[in-house]
Amino acid sequence: MKNSRVVLITGASSGIGLSIGQHLTSLQYQVVGTSRTPDKYPKHPFPLIAMDVLDNNSVKDGIDAVVAAYKTIDVLINNAGMGMAGPLEEMDLEAINTIICLNFKGSISVMQHALKLMHKQQSGVIINVASIAGNNGLPFRSVYAASKAALMRVSESLRLELRHTPIQCTVLSPGSIKTAIADNRYYAPLDKDSVYYKQYKASLADMDDHVNKGLSPIYVAKKVEKLINKKKLKPHYSVGPFLEVLSPLIKFLLPQRAYENLIASFYNLN
After folding, report:
1. Could you report how far apart the first and last alpha carbons of the chain are, in Å?
2. What stretch of H or E contains 108?
3. Phi/psi at 217 (nearest 5 deg)?
4. pLDDT range class, residue 243, cuts 50, 70, 90
5. Are 11 and 117 in contact (CB under 8 A)?
6. pLDDT by residue (tens digit) across 6-25?
């Protein structure tokens, strides 16, 4: 029997968004994904609509298209985003702006338009996909970590603003998940003359190794399924390798310098 709930997933053409959509589709949810170029995916396992979260008009048009076709959006999964790596000193400022707008401002734009509908229908669930990286300042991933941390804080604020409504909001932070994120990540050039060359090169190898050894994205998809069906959502959830999921607790318990040294060791910076 087809599930009556409509789920909108941004950034659903590949990776975590694709996995979530496939899993929920198999459970008979009515899933709609977004992509900047849906025509590139004619055999996609669930419908894709055009939406560029960097363009507020595109977001509005996309939300309107879903409402016209399905009458409702019961669950919004804000997943669209992009990775970024490089020494902060050497990152292109325009690229930084794009990443922050994509990972942070774009999610706000989608929420603003979806919330108008959710208030009218007096129901709705928002799951913002952040990252365990947002819990820490990570070497050579400063802007990415900061954009995800910002999404966490906005989600916490939104939860408080929605306390008088039936709408729920939470954050799901994946750790290392085996996807093609490395193929789509923005990279600052690896310059042999850079004072960061050796450390940056080693960190790039570590990033790719962590992803290659990460969990299957189906773990994220199954976590989303559980969250959708919870009556009362907590502010934060995470999914990933054990030590990564445990990192916020370790950060809280350890002295600051001890934790910083642990991160440095993890990324071979000592």
Report:
1. 56
2. helix 106-121
3. -65, -15
4. confident
5. no
6. 999 999 999 999 999 999 99
- Phi/psi at 8 (5° precision): -105, 125
Give the bridge partners for 172, in sequence order: 129, 237
Q: Is 229 exposed, middle or buried (0-12, 13-18, 19+ CB in 10 A)?
A: exposed
Q: What are the tokens at 33?
A: 């994904």
pTM score of the predicted model: 0.94
168 and 122 Cβ atoms separated by less than 8 Å: no
Measured in whole angstroms, how far is the alpha carbon of residue 174 from the centre of its chain?
8
Q: What is the maximum span of the chain, computed from C-alpha positions, in angstroms?
A: 61
What are the beta bridge partners of residue 95? none
| Structural domain boundaries in the chain | 6-266
Please enumerate in sequence order all residues whose Cβ is within 8 A of that of 193, keeping only pairs 6 or more positions apart, or say none.
none
* Range 6-266 classified under CATH 3.40.50.720: yes
* Alpha-carbon gap, residue 220 to 17, rounded angstroms: 9
56 in Cβ contact with 105 (< 8 Å): no
* Of 167, 136, 53, 57, the residue nearest 100 (C-alpha): 53
Q: Do residues 116 and 136 make contact, with C-beta atoms less than 8 angstroms apart?
A: no
Residue bearing tokens 């994946």: 174
